[in-house]
Amino acid sequence: MMNYGYQQYKTQAVETMTKGEMLILLYDEINKRLLRARAYFEKEDIALFEADIQRAIDIVNYLEKSLDRKYPISNDLYRLYDFITYELTRVKTGRNLELIDDITPLIKDLRESFKEADRLSKKDPSVGAGIGTTTSSVTLGVG
């Protein structure tokens, strides 16, 4: 019974997020998965390591697919997401933790950029146009 209430709360929290908040949450999830993957690798739990890397790849693929290509920034983001996916695949197959160290700052920079764009769009809604993603209806350069 208690679990149902918590799940309902989580669902409502996600449904009431702004597009920018949802995007920031996705970047946070990528970072979390990369941190966990590192920990699993150090514990020699390769199955969980690969599962977390794959989940990070899935999120980046989702972000890539949700881009609204009518905005010029979307083409740049597409190439960046493609690069991140490529590098994460190299992490997974080569089990190279140094690549995680290379990718993590990039993910954090993207997160901070979208956080700032979200902050600015709350002040002036025309600022956020074209920076989005569609997460149900998230639009930050993503359709």
CATH class: Mainly Alpha
Please, how many domains? 1
How would you describe the shape? globular
* CATH architecture descriptor: Up-down Bundle
Strand coverage percent:
under 5%
Please state the average pLDDT score: 80
CATH topology: Four Helix Bundle (Hemerythrin (Met), subunit A)
What integer value in Å does the Rg equal? 16 Å
Quantity of strands, as a count: 0
Question: Can you say what the CATH homologous superfamily is?
Answer: Flagellar protein FliS
- Segments where pLDDT lies below 50 for 5+ residues? 132-143
Question: Strand pairing plus helix content: what structural class?
Answer: mainly alpha
Taking the sheet with the most strands, its summary is: none
Overview of this structure, please?
With 143 residues, the protein is mainly alpha-helical. The chain has one domain (19-123): Up-down Bundle (Four Helix Bundle (Hemerythrin (Met), subunit A)). Helix content is 76%, strand content 0%. It is built from 5 helices and no strands. It has helices spanning 2-15, 19-42, 46-65, 72-94, 97-123. It is globular, with a radius of gyration of 16 Å. 31% of the residues are buried. Residues 132-143 have low confidence and may be disordered. Keywords: Bacterial flagellum biogenesis, Cell projection, Chaperone, Cilium, Cytoplasm, Flagellum. Belongs to the FliS family. InterPro entries: FliS (IPR003713), FliS_sf (IPR036584). This is Flagellar export chaperone FliS. It is found in: Cytoplasm, Cytosol.
